[in-house]
Amino acid sequence: MATTYREAIQRQQNALQQVYENAEGLRDNATADEKDAWNSLRGLLNTAISTLYKLDNKLIPGRPEVILKNNYLINTKISTK
After folding, report:
1. Which of 3, 36, 46, 79 is the residue whose CA sits 20 to 30 A from 62?
2. What was the pLDDT predicted at 78?
3. What does pTM read for this prediction?
4. Distance between CA 4 and CA 1 in Å, rounded?
């Protein structure tokens, strides 16, 4: 399945958003000592997600539709095993 540059960027955004939300749940179950680490991680993820949105919005005409040669699919299924 061919992937466009914009699709790959948006998949990165979605994957990071899922990790961000998952980290929120883990933070809520963390000890007081661990919460700072989870909050730091969530801050970094928020910055990364924001950066990808800015990149997506600044693409020059024709760039979003560029077909990528490699597979940039991301498996976002989280295993509970």
Report:
1. 46
2. 63
3. 0.84
4. 10
